[in-house]
Design brief:
The complex is a heterodimer of chains A (about 270) and B (about 280).
Chain A lengths: L5 E12 L2 E12 L3 E5 L6 H8 L7 E6 L2 E2 H6 L3 E4 L11 H11 L4 H14 L15 H13 L5 E5 L7 H18 L2 E6 L2 H7 L2 E6 L4 E7 L14 H16 L9 H5 L2
Chain B lengths: L5 H32 L16 H7 L11 H36 L1 H16 L2 H12 L3 H24 L4 H9 L4 H36 L8 H10 L5 H29 L9
Helix pairs in contact in B: 2-10, 3-4, 3-6, 3-8, 3-9, 3-10, 5-6, 6-8, 8-10, 9-10
Classes of the chains: A alpha/beta (about 270), B mainly alpha (about 280).
Chain lengths: ~270, ~280
């Protein structure tokens, strides 16, 4: 596959914040229709990398390409939607108006906006809550509004920065399932940053493991679990094998403790 | 989503009545006991001149304002309307000017650093010194009074709205960047709505400030028709009817309260926030 086929192509990207090197020499390709997770210890630069793709942060060296164009142009052309860990909803707007925000920016007329908002509200299962305000919703519901908003203008690419990080385990698993259904229906490409190994394996076609200080790509794990995934996928033996493989890679880059209990040792 | 249930209103009304009643009681108690006991605090002692009975103040409304003249209540009503018009125009001008200024300062650090000291300094000049100057520039008349009222109004609006415009959540701004939004879109879709609670807090302060400004503004212009004129008049003839001046003060404060209430009502309608986030 050439660079032209890649939905997202990152070439030699390095990012320094003053003295601190957040990313070093990152080369990565994400192909159309993939679901790629970025996982790694704190400080590995995964959120920064996501923002480089979205042209919200400029790399110190190297380039990022989205849909065959420079990331900057892709942002101006609105080729991607982004979801943050915090839902970032506007308190003064209702759920419907929050979802419609990018459509307003794109200049869609009222009727088109209303129709699309109705579709999306159904998609994220929030019918009945259209006139509610963000403070009246739970964390999981707010995040669903945020996802609906990101999808409203049908971007080819979705960038997600630990969107379910602030939610409890059960809500998280449910939203994982919903996200996969949305991914299948919309056929978009998703780049997903997470701290959770099971989540990364469950959702992705590939898991990119990153190391910290400076942020580098340490390895890639292909997730060959069958599609479409279901709740049962989490109980397959292959799932546990893959989780273990990702875990070992993380351990190798120092993302997880390894060896015997150090506290016990040093107490001797 | 109406928070006006009857029980809550009832309780608020009852609290209000009790507080007013308590204050009324303190006043009368102080007056009656002070007078009976011959209380003196320096030069001050309670009597009909220094502390008229509150029922005398209210009774005065229904007396002629001067010999063979119209009732005080009708005179004060006309004066209040007169001043209200001036104050309203001043309030609107001041609010608009304050808002525009805040938007300018929010977009240019250079302007902010350059202009803010002067804006602050402008408020330190006593209004009694500025008012005659405004009258000299604009000629006597209602418009000059409105300008003086606007002068007292714009400052809280500028300072608070500026804070509000800059208070937008950085993530919200990052989101707008992901939509390749231009500065206008960011202003109208994010910054201005984010500033509304701050803006209305300032308007509440300005509501009363504009009434005060209008009353003071009438003084150098020797305008007879408003509350300023009435205050001067009843002050000059205080000894012949002490309750008249007090009655005028009551009307002036009621005017301020009406303005404040109107702004509070507008805030209810405009500002949609989680209840705990409204100042």
């Amino acid at each position: 596959m050439t660079k032209a086929d890649a939905a997202v192509a990152i070439r030699g990207v390095t990012k320094d914040f003053g003295e601190v090197r957040a990313l070093e020499d990152i080369d990565l390709e994400v192909y159309a229709g993939e679901f790629v997770s970025l996982i790694g210890p704190s400080g590995c630069g995964k959120s920064t990398l996501l923002r480089v793709i979205g042209d919200l942060v400029q790399p110190t060296r190297g380039e990022a390409f989205v849909n065959g164009k420079a990331a900057h142009q892709a942002r101006l052309d609105r080729d991607y939607g982004i979801v943050f860990q915090d839902a970032v909803l506007y308190d003064w707007r209702t759920v419907s108006k929050n979802i419609a925000l990018p459509l307003e920016m794109l200049g869609w007329d009222r009727a088109k906006r209303a129709a699309r908002v109705r579709e999306l509200t159904e998609l994220v299962e929030l019918t009945g809550f259209e006139s509610h305000h963000p403070w009246q919703l739970s964390g999981g519901m707010q995040q669903r509004v945020s996802i609906a908003r990101a999808l409203s203008f049908e971007p080819a690419i979705l960038l997600m920065d630990e969107p379910f990080g602030a939610l409890d385990e059960m809500t998280r698993e449910r939203l994982n399932m919903e996200l996969l259904q949305i991914w299948e229906r919309s056929k978009s490409t998703i780049v997903f940053v997470t701290h959770s190994i099971p989540e990364a394996v469950f959702l992705s076609t590939r898991v990119v493991v990153m190391s910290a200080r400076p942020g580098r790509i340490a390895g890639v794990v292909e997730v060959d679990l069958p599609q479409p995934r279901s709740a049962e996928s989490r109980e397959e033996p292959r799932f546990f094998e893959l989780v273990t493989e990702v875990r070992e890679r993380l351990r190798a880059v120092g993302g997880l403790p390894s060896g015997p209990d150090r506290i016990a040792e040093s107490a001797k | 989503m109406h928070r006006l249930d009857a029980r809550r209103l009832g309780r608020q009304a009852l609290t209000f009545v009790l507080v007013v009643g308590a204050l009324w009681g303190f006043w009368e108690a102080f007056r009656v006991l002070g007078e009976a006991s011959g209380l003196r605090i320096g030069q001050f002692h309670p009597d009909d001149r220094t502390m008229p009975h509150i029922h005398d103040m209210f009774g005065q409304f229904f007396e002629p304002s001067r010999r063979n003249g119209p009732l005080l209540i009708s005179v004060l009503w006309d004066a209040a309307l007169f001043t209200a018009k001036e104050a309203l125009l001043g309030f609107l001008m001041g609010a608009a000017a304050g808002f525009v200024l805040a938007v300018l300062l929010a977009h240019s650090r250079l302007l902010e650093r350059g202009l803010l000291p002067f804006i602050v300094a402008s408020q330190t000049i006593p209004i009694l010194a500025i008012a005659p100057m405004v009258v000299v520039w604009l000629q006597k008349g209602s418009f000059a009074v409105s300008v003086i009222a606007a002068y007292l109004t714009f400052f809280p609006v500028t300072i608070n709205t500026l804070r509000g415009l800059l208070s937008a959540n950085p993530s919200a701004l990052e989101l707008m960047r992901s939509y390749a939004a231009n500065k206008w879109a960011v202003l109208w879709k994010v910054r201005v709505p984010a500033s509304m609670p701050y803006f209305f807090t300032a308007l509440k302060v300005s509501a009363t400030a504009s009434v005060v400004g209008a009353i003071i503004g009438e003084l150098p212009s020797s305008i007879q028709g408003g509350l300023g004129g009435a205050i001067l008049n009843f002050n000059q003839y205080y000894l012949s009817s002490p309750p008249s001046l007090w009655a005028t003060i009551i009307v002036a404060s009621l005017l301020g309260i009406v303005f404040f209430g109107a702004v509070a009502l507008a805030e209810r309608l405009v500002v949609r926030r989680a209840p705990e986030n409204v100042a």
